[in-house]
Amino acid sequence: MNSNRLFFITSSKDELYYLNDTIFVKFNVKRNGISTSKLNGGFSSSINYVFNHHLSQENIDYLVDHDLETYLIQKCKSLNVDSSYSTGLVTLAEMNHVSIVTESFKNLDVTAITTAGVRTNAARAGDPAAYYEEKGHFGTINTIILINANLGYETLLEAFMTATEAKTVALDDLKIPSQYSNGYATGTGTDGLCIFSNIESDNVLTNAGKHSKLGELIGKCVAQSVKKAVKKQVWLSPKSQSNALVRLNRYSLDINEFYDNLDCDKEEFIKLLQKDMKKQDNVAITTSVLNLIDEIDLDLIEKDAALTLANEIIDDCNSYPIKMLLEYWISHFIH
C-alpha cells in the first residue's frame, strides 16, 4: 500500500487516507457515534475525523511515562486536524494490514475498517486479569464502523453490542485460543471500537440487533474484516488452524516431559508428527478429544463417560505420534 494517499471513499463520501502509520477517516457528512478512544470517547455528535494509529516501539516507550490522551492530541496536530472534533484508536498492528469490508442492502451500507493481531494478547472474557488499572490502552483488534443510515444513541449502543459479538464470532470461527486460559478467545485485552451513523440521512433506523437487517450487515462486516485483518497481520486462517498441534496447544503441557518418556527416536517421531499433524482425520480426532475436555471443564459431561469415549476415539487413530500425544493429553486432563 502506498503511503499518504486516498484509498477508499464510502457511499456517504467519507474519505479514507493511508498515512504511513495511520488510517485516517475524514467525514463529509454530519455523524454521531460512539468511541472507546481516550480522546473524545463515549457518545458524540461533533466528531469530524476518526483514525487508527500504529504505535512504534519509540511511541510505546514514550507512553510509559506520558498520558495517552495527550499523545492523541499531539497526533491530531501532526495530522493537521482539530483534536476537539477528532477521536482515534491506537494499536500495535500494522496499518498496511488493514481490512475494509462493505455490506449493502437496498439503500443501507455498512463499512468496517479493521486492523487485528491476536498472537500474544488474545483473551476470553472472564480470564484471570493481567492488571488492576493501566495508564495506556493499546488496541489489538481495532474496528471503525461507518453506517450511512441515521441511528439514535440507543441504537448505536445496540450496534456496538452486535459488532462486539461479531468479533467474537470471527475468533471462534478461527479457533483462536486465549493466552490466559484453556478456552477460545472472545477478543483481546485491548480492543477498540468506533461506530458512526449519518445523522443527515432520512433513513432512520431504530434496531441494530441480530434480527434486524442492519444488525446482519454489521455482523457480516465485522466478522469478515476481523478474519481478513488477522490473516494479514499474523497469518492465521482456516488452513493454518487445521492442524492437530495447533489445536492441542490450547491445553498446553510441558512437552519436554512427554519427549523424555518416549520409547522411540525423538527425531524420527517429530518427522512423522510433522507429516501427520495436518491430515484431516488426525485434526478431526484431536478436535473430538479436546471437545470432551471442554465438556468436562464446563460440567456438561461426567469425566468417566468422557474418558471412555476419548479412548474409543483414539483407538481409531492411525497415526502413532498423534495417538501418543492424545494419550498424554488425556492422562493429564481427563484422568
Description of the molecule:
The protein is α+β, with helices and mostly antiparallel strands and 335 residues long. The chain folds into 2 domains: 5-235, L-amino peptidase D-ALA esterase/amidase, CATH 3.60.70; 242-333, no CATH class. The protein contains 11 helices and 15 strands. The protein has helices at 57-63, 68-79, 153-173, 213-234, 238-241, 244-248, 255-260, 266-276, 280-297, 303-315, 320-333, and strands at 5-9, 15-18, 22-26, 31-35, 42-44, 49-54, 86-91, 99-105, 108-115, 122-123, 142-147, 150-151, 187-188, 192-198, 204-205. It has a 6-stranded mixed β-sheet, covered by helices on one side. The longest helix is centred in the C-terminal third of the chain and has 22 residues, at 213-234. It starts with a strand and ends with a helix. Mean pLDDT is 93; it is low at 132-137.
The residue-averaged pLDDT reads 93
Order of helices and strands: EEEEEEHHEEEEEEHEEEHHHHHHHH
What is the number of helical segments per DSSP (H or I, 4+ residues)?
Answer: 11
Oligomeric category: single chain
The total count of strands amounts to 15
Rg to the nearest angstrom? 23 Å
By helix and strand content, what is the structural category?
alpha+beta
Helical amount among residues, as a percent range?
25-40%
Domain unit count = 2
Uncertain parts? 132-137
Biggest β-sheet: strands ordered side by side in the sheet: 5-4-14-11-9-8
Q: Give the biggest beta sheet.
A: 6 strands, mixed
**What is the CATH top level name of the largest domain?**
Alpha Beta
CATH topology-level fold name of the largest domain: L-amino peptidase D-ALA esterase/amidase
- Our measurement of the CA-to-CA distance between the termini, rounded to an integer number of angstroms, reads 52 Å
> What characteristic shape results from the CA principal axes?
elongated
